[in-house]
Amino acid sequence: MAVAVASILLLFAFPLWRITLEAPQFPEGLHMYIWINKISGSSEHILQNINILNHYIGMQPVEPDSIPELQYFPYIVIGMGVLGIGAVIANRWYYYLGWFLLLVVLGGLGIYDFYLWLYDYGHNLDPQAPIKVPGMTYQPPLLGRKELLNFVAYSYPATGGYLLLLSGILSFLAFWSKK
């Protein structure tokens, strides 16, 4: 259980998710990383380049300061860390189970929130955009690969996403071994 708690606290050191856009003009791809408290790119100007491209098709700019989840997710992770440390100290199976279930619920809500963000981002287009394709939406995939005009978008967990999954597995195993 202690390793599960440590794994979730490592979300401060590793990004949760990675979205990559590939196109002929960007053969190396544009890599955007979503952390619990920020959004970054594989290089300094990636976010700026993505926002310039988004402007042409009417997508909203990615502005990390305007995403409220990036402000409160760190508190949720810290809270889970504190609860997890309490569970380790108490060393009772029902605390391990409770922590695991809370992690599953919060993780599910986080994925649903991310889907809603992607949906709004890809469907709420500026009608004054320079490039308009009737009926086209630009929602990146929640998980997997999707073609968007001449771009291919990939969306997969990054290291932090796998650490979160590991945290869930380990906390369930801690519960199972204690019961």
Shape: elongated
Radius of gyration: 19 Å
Number of helices: 5
Unreliable spans: none
Give structural notes.
With about 180 residues, the protein is of the alpha+beta class. It has one domain. Helices cover about 50% and strands about 15% of the residues. It has helices at about 1-10, 45-55, 70-90, 95-125, 160-179, and strands spanning about 15-25, 25-35, 40, 145-150, 150-155. A 5-stranded antiparallel beta sheet has the order 3-2-1-5-4. Helix 1 runs antiparallel to helix 3 and helix 3 packs antiparallel against helix 4. It is elongated and about 60 Å long. The model has no long low-confidence stretch (mean pLDDT about 95).
What's a concise summary of this model?
The chain has 179 residues and is an alpha+beta fold. It has helices spanning 2-9, 46-57, 69-90, 93-123, 159-178; strands at 17-23, 26-34, 39-41, 144-148, 151-157.
Keywords, separated by commas or semicolons:
179 residues; alpha+beta; five-stranded antiparallel sheet; 5 helices; 5 strands; elongated
Write the topology of this structure.
Blueprint: H1 2-9, E1 17-23, E2 26-34, E3 39-41, H2 46-57, H3 69-90, H4 93-123, E4 144-148, E5 151-157, H5 159-178
Antiparallel strand pairs: 1-2, 1-5, 2-3, 4-5
